[in-house]
Amino acid sequence: MGRMSDVFISYARSTEPQARQIGDALRALGYGVWRDDEIPAHRAYADVIRERLAAAKAVVVVWSAEAAGSEWVRSEAERARADRKLVQLTVDGAELPMPFDQTQCADMNGWSGGADHPGWRKVVDSIAALTAGMTAHGPSSAPAARPRPKLSICVLPFANISDDPQQEYFSDGISEDIITDLSKVSALSVASRNSAFAFKGKSTPMMQVARELGVSHVVEGSVRKAGARVRITAQLIEAATDTHLWAERYDRDLDDIFALQDEISRAIVAALKVTLLPNERQAIERRGTANAEAYTLFLLARQYLDSGSRGDSQREKAIVRLARRAVEMDPEYSRAWALLSHALASIPEVFRGDESDGSAEAERALALDPESAEAHAAKGNVLSFAGQSEDGLKEVELALRLDPQSYEANRSAGRIYYHARRFREAVRCFAVTAEQAQADFTPCGMLASCHMALGDREAAKAASRASLERVEKILVHDRINSHAMAYAADALAVLGEGDRAREWMKRALLIDPENILMRYNFGCALSVNLHDPDGAIEMLRPVMESRVKRFVDAAATDPDLDPIREDARFQAMIVAAEARLAAEKTAAAK
């Protein structure tokens, strides 16, 4: 077996000749290459595969029609994607399975071994980046394994070292803005926010971060916010030599936060000896708001929206108050208007009130920034909640075209696809939101439901384990977060731990008995995973009696309720709920 190899090649049997040709070409460049034709008779196949996958610096997946349907290939590709060392290529133009169709794939059609084929160049460049220019035998001198044309950099999430751990929303916001700033520089290749935030809270060595993300430089830092003052430290590290190229500490008034972010971004660019183009300098200095307090309120409202206890009316009202105050302080702040629209649109989902439906706020966000993915997602949200699902879907699909990685766009699109029973599309969107927001357990729970609807129980269990892990982290700091407790119960039900699931349900209902969103989710879990139709119907009864139209509409298509859909009691409950809503609508029109 010898030393571990740089490159692992995954393929289906029908493409064995192409896999061998690719391996031979990579060996000619000095890389160590491994394929599964090298497993000795005394070793278990699965053990060797697992060992080699873990050791490889790059995993090349040769997609074909057969590979797309192979559990082995998909499993190997999923492990590589999770470890951030996946290199994809296709040899027959086959459609890639989800979620791999969301990642770049080299088209190798017509390749006969030449170094100038564009697909081959893409493959070799990716392998060179992942292996940091190294082969199994030392530095590569292979002409095809060229250095990346751009400097590559990762901005790790800045640590919150404030006395108040709740200030983490602020340090995360600073990190995200610096990532966004550097992404505007054409001479830089910047690791995405979700790739960088995967290392949040971990003490991973810089060289390992660089190797896993395929970058040459890493930025790390810390933020301390106290009252009207903020201290930020930042440093730029060259990964190959573990050398600090630049480091600085800043003590400023909070009102100077935007100028400070600009200063940090420009200092990083200068340390990398990169020249900013005039339009790039202007883009970095252009902010959604110049009001530091509005910015702080926006970040805080967004944190509540992403990690708070959904269904808790006080939490929903707090988000609205924070976002509304942000737009009062800066009426030109498009992102805050979009967030306010999202919050207002969600209120009738969980309790009845007389607030706006969020439509005017979405239109205001779009008027201020017509190219904002967040604003289009907000409008899509409003339309879908109003029963205009097709129009809502058009808006969120436009948002996804503007920014395929937008958390807001993928969250809204995932929900609309789910209720349209388009589960494969929903999986793609929820997978993005799960990666974007590492603390948010909701998309993992929705992924579990989608996979159950698609008949993939193992994938549902994997998503449920991820959901449970995230919930446990939330509950360390927020022990009465009933929304988190509800998702824990749902996850346990998927995982077959029925007794524990029921115990969590009982505890959550004691803490927040009026939360009808939570009751709806419990009804779904009792129906599809705990196989308790009597319990599901009794849990759903107060939800249907609440006269909240969205729950009645959702129950009509929710796959989790399919096991009780033909139950006469469930049907009668839905008919009665629809009659109450119709009578209420008639009375309101008089």
| Overall radius of gyration | 26 Å
Task: Tell the overall outline.
Answer: globular
The fraction of residues assigned to DSSP E strands is 5-15%
Show unreliable segments. Answer: 133-149
Helix content: 55-70%
User: N- to C-terminal separation?
Assistant: 82 Å
Tally of strands:
13
Specify the structural class.
alpha/beta
Task: Describe the largest sheet.
Answer: 6 strands, mixed
Average pLDDT metric? 82
State the helix count: 26
Can you give a write-up of this model?
The structure is a single chain. The protein has 590 residues and is of the alpha/beta class. Helix content is 57%, strand content 11%. It is globular.
Keywords, separated by commas or semicolons:
590 residues, alpha/beta, five-stranded parallel sheet, 26 helices, 13 strands, 11% strand
Outline the fold blueprint.
Layout: E1 7-10, H1 16-28, E2 33-34, H2 45-55, E3 58-63, H3 65-68, H4 71-82, E4 86-90, E5 106-107, H5 118-130, E6 134-135, E7 138-139, E8 151-155, E9 159-160, H6 168-183, E10 188-190, H7 193-197, H8 206-213, E11 217-226, E12 229-238, E13 243-253, H9 257-271, H10 278-285, H11 292-307, H12 313-329, H13 334-350, H14 359-368, H15 373-385, H16 389-402, H17 407-419, H18 423-436, H19 442-453, H20 457-477, H21 482-494, H22 498-511, H23 516-528, H24 533-545, H25 549-557, H26 568-589
Parallel strand pairs: 1-2, 1-3, 3-4, 4-5, 8-10, 8-11, 9-11
Antiparallel strand pairs: 6-7, 11-12, 12-13
Helix pairs in contact: 6-9, 11-12, 11-13, 12-13, 13-14, 13-15, 14-15, 15-16, 15-17, 16-17, 17-18, 18-19, 19-20, 20-21, 21-22, 21-23, 23-24, 24-26, 25-26
